[in-house]
């Protein structure tokens, strides 16, 4: 019987190595990537059964990457493995189509269970935030996704790349658009978020999990 195929995404090599040792006895690891754009490319190329991804990754955060991956391949299962013990991140993850949400410090005891549940078509939430997530859902509904609901997917991409210090020209090359278009998007982003400086842009991106410090 073939082992389920797993694609890992995390921008820390030491985390990837630890996950390999944890998962290899039960699963086939088809690849590892270290940023959100590489995750999108390899997911389309390798067609894994399950993606295990961090939320805060360079070039494109995990939530926005998975949102786009699920549009092209709704059947792929996704388990987020993150250091953020916050219901807003969990809500964003599940809104993007995730099947599981596990905290990194609980990976050794919970990750395999979460992957098994995902493969069965079920959902797994780390017990540390499950109660808060359910209460939020029963009360006021899910909080806004951490990538900011009022921005388009293209604006979120550009916001993250700007916050990572890339120039308009570099972003234009990466996204295959003109530097002038990037500058227009930057203006609209700052207008929508009521942000006046590049420093505030970075602070917003850090606060909402688009980049990690």
Structural write-up:
This protein has 10 helices and 6 strands, in the order βαβαβαβαβαβααααα. The protein is globular. Strand 5, helix 5 (107-119) and strand 6 form a beta-alpha-beta unit. It starts with a strand and ends in a 6-residue tail after the last helix. With 213 residues, the chain is α/β, with parallel strands linked by helices. A 6-stranded parallel beta sheet has the order 2-1-3-4-5-6, sandwiched between helices. The chain has helices at 13-23, 36-46, 62-72, 87-95, 107-119, 127-139, 153-163, 168-175, 179-193, 198-207; strands at residues 5-9, 28-33, 50-53, 77-82, 100-103, 124-125. Helix content is 53%, strand content 13%. The protein folds into 2 domains: 5-139, 3-Layer(aba) Sandwich (Rossmann fold), CATH 3.40.50.2300; 153-207, Winged helix-like DNA-binding domain superfamily/Winged helix DNA-binding domain (Arc Repressor Mutant, subunit A).
């Amino acid at each position: 019987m073939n082992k389920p195929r797993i694609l890992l995404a995390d921008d820390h090599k030491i985390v990837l190595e630890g996950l390999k040792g944890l998962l290899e006895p039960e699963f086939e690891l088809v690849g590892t990537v270290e940023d959100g754009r590489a995750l999108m490319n390899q997911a389309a190329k390798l067609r894994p059964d399950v993606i295990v991804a961090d939320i805060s990754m360079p070039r494109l955060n995990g939530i926005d990457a998975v949102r786009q991956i699920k549009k092209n391949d709704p059947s792929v299962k996704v388990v987020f493995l993150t250091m953020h013990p916050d219901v807003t991140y969990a809500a964003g993850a599940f809104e993007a189509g995730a099947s599981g949400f596990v905290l990194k410090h609980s990976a050794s005891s919970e990750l395999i269970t979460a992957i098994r549940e995902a493969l069965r078509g079920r959902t797994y939430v780390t017990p540390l935030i499950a109660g808060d997530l359910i209460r939020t859902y029963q009360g006021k509904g899910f909080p806004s996704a951490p990538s900011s609901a009022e921005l388009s997917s293209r604006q979120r991409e550009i916001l993250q790349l700007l916050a990572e210090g890339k120039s308009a020209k570099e972003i234009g090359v990466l996204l295959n658009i003109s530097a002038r278009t990037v500058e227009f998007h930057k203006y609209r982003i700052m207008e929508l978020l009521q942000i006046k400086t590049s420093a505030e842009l970075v602070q917003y991106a850090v606060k909402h999990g688009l980049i990690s410090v």
